[in-house]
Amino acid sequence: QESKHEEMTSANRQLKMEREVHQQELANLRSELQNAKSKHERNVQELMKLLKQQKDDAEAQIKTLKMELVEEKNIVKTQCQQLEKIKIECDKLTEELTRNEEENIKLRWKCEFLKQELEKKDKQICDEEDHLRRMDEARLQFKDQLHHLEMEQESILTMIGSEIDAACEIFSRDSMEKFKVILS
């Protein structure tokens, strides 16, 4: 019985020692678990902090992009309006160019017509100048002829006058007899 009692005591001691070892291991495991939980908690907090930072950055970037998008839309809207104005102005200028080209064609026709008229009038003036020159030559010729005829007339009149003088002289010699003959 004593030996059994010693065996029991020895087994109890061994059991107690094993229990202490197990409790020590359990305490170590609990401590490791606590450390792991703490570490996990810290990692989760850091990760949450990082995610929050990334979320804030992403939201800020989204906000910036939205503002840029609004600005871009405004710029596009403004440019569309400017483009529309430019198109309208371009249409007006095209219309004006077409009108100017038509007027230019009309002016060219008119210019050509006036050029032809001017050439006709120039020819007519040349013809008239030629005619005037011929008329002037004819006038000078007639003037010369008139002068010649005047001189001829003067010489004829002088000759007639001298013949009349000669006749008068002849008549005056036998004037009474001839006067009677003339009177009769």
From TrEMBL:
GO cellular component: centriole; spindle pole
UniProt-annotated stretches for the region Disordered: 1-41
InterPro entries: CEP128 (IPR026652)
Protein name as catalogued: Centrosomal protein of 128 kDa
Protein's organism: Eurypyga helias (Sunbittern)
Lineage: Eukaryota, Metazoa, Chordata, Craniata, Vertebrata
